[in-house]
Amino acid sequence: MKASIALIVSFLAAAASSKRILFKKQTLQSSCVRCCGPLEKPMYLYGLSSSQRVVSDHPTYAIPEIKPKIDMTILKGSKGEKGERGMPGKTGKTGPNGSIGITGIKGDKGQAGIPGHNCKQHYAAFSVGRRKGIQSNELQPQLIFDTEFVNLYHHFDMFTGRFYCYVQGVYFFNLNVHTWNFKETYLHLMRNDEEVVILYAQPSDRSIMQSQSVMLDLSESDEVWVRLYQENRENAAYSGAGDIYITFNGYLIKAAVESD
Questions:
Q1: Burial annotation 140-156 (CB, 10 A radius, 16+ → b, else e)
Q2: CA distances in angstroms from 48 to 27, 60, 132, 222, listed in the order given
Q3: What phi and psi, each to the nearest 5 degrees, are found at residue 187?
Q4: Contact 222, 109 (CB under 8 A)
Q5: Helix or strand holding residue 185 (H, E)
Q6: pLDDT digits (tens, 9 = 90+) for 8-47
Q7: Can you list the alpha helix ranges (DSSP code H) found in the chain?
């Protein structure tokens, strides 16, 4: 019995001795021993317990853990080629109207236009009258008419008492007035501001009809009208309230440019 116990104790002691030797080999293989730097701290100060210490002439040190850090900037490749143009996007909403800009600089005069249509109407004619008499003491010397008989294309302006030439050519004009008893009758047929012909009658105790006619070669924009002479003279032309005694007539005889 004693021999059996002694054999068991001897076996356990041998097993413990073999485990101690194996642990010492593993510790020596996984630790780093420096040959210099005796002032550095031994391995047991970095986490080994006193039971894990190994008898050695030099202190042992733990192997530091290395964590590699990759700099991604050195891995960046070269710039690639330009890609294809993408599809156009949807049309956006219409924005609000902008403010009105400043007035621009006046442009240059344009070129002359093409000739007008050759079917232009080469006609002109008018006949107007006045029911009210006129005297030289009135402020307006220009004779204004209140009755329109004929006014083709409205070339005669009833508000100004003037005929405006829109068709260049030769015209015939006629002026008829009734004299006033004991008063002089003195009128001019005017082209623009020029006196063309005169209609005149001396004072008399009898009133009579007076007439004057003329043909004029007019240009476009010319104006023909009747003026009552007013320079320090008692001048008048008679017309009754119901009857017309004063008439002014004109018409185109021949246009300067004949239509085809």
A1: ebebbbeeeeeeeeebb
A2: 11, 10, 141, 128
A3: -135, 155
A4: no
A5: strand 185-191
A6: 656 666 665 555 555 555 554 544 555 555 555 555 444 4
A7: 2-29
